[in-house]
Amino acid sequence: AATEPDSNRRAYAVWVSEIMLQQTQVATVIDYYNRWMQKWPTLQALSQASLEEVNELWAGLGYYSRGKRLQEAARKVVSELAGQMPRTAEDLQKLLPGVGRYTAGAIASISYGQATGVVDGNVIRVLCRLRCIGADSSSPAVIDWLWDMANTLVDRSRPGDFNQALMELGATVCVPKAPLCGECPVKQHCQARHRMEKELTVASQKLFGKPAPVPDVEDCGVGGCPLCPPATEPWDSSLGVTNFPRKAAKKQPRVARTATCVLERRGCHGAPEYLIVQRPSSGLLAGLWEFPSLPLAQGLQEEEQREVLADHLRAWIGQPVAMGSLRLIGEVVHIFSHIHQTYVVYSLPLDADITLDPALSPSRWVTEKEFYASAVSTAMKKV
Ligand code: SF4
Q: Superfamily assignment of 254-373 in CATH?
């Protein structure tokens, strides 16, 4: 913030980095961020980009709707807000699509110095440990409490630095599995650590036959408190400070199978070319390109898979496809956040020239090099 005097550019840069960093690690984001800012250094430049260009640059970063929404929001700022970024967390969240409470707080505190807190996964962990919050950390009561706490704690004079420091503390010291409590700059305030130390004292007193101390009234955990560990899952001594935070059991990802076919022809210079088609503009991997693919119903035998795939391909190439000509190559597994996807990969070499039906979704023939430069997902690159 100190090196960029133009507040709109500052907020735009923080915004891009924050959106890219959602669900993606810093090491991966840096290269994407630099390329993005080089290509679209301002909101105005981004507002003129096409979705295809955005998807191409985003390819491999995952969660593709993030790039799309970023570009839509940039267009909105340029066309409806006279190119001026909203100046407060409340307005950022209200006016910009894809900007939630966390991103709004980060942009407002880092770019404009608004004294507003942020709560991300790292902050949740640090605050839950600092205050022994043992209820499900995704429950509304805990989330509200964490935001209140973050807004109370934030340094009024350097809110951006404070928020980044708190997140960094979670990323580097108060890490999920083996936190470095001995090196922690806030250890004297940490109730989880106090509790752990107290337990060690009690254990050693027991060892020497001294009577156990009377329980401290502040070690509540009873009476249906919405912030304490549930009575069914009390403090586990073997876990120490990593008793916190507690999370509700994760939902199992949905299992899905998709047949996909790599159609290959000889291009005009003799090099092989492959057919790619564009996915619908909404839903998973919206607007990205892929080999013609078809979700498979559960329990289909290989013969039945070939049959439905041959049918599907006929629509693309406008002529019947003999089931026997589809060669089964193998299976590729790709894990999306909520889907365990298996691609059953076939290939089909074509001799005759094919005229693609313009009434269908956009499709095109690409060389291998063009394929990698296109807006295709990591899953398709694996295929
Ligand atoms: Fe986290 Fe340990 Fe620091 Fe507490 S003392 S905030 S548990 S690293």
A: Nucleoside Triphosphate Pyrophosphohydrolase (3.90.79.10)
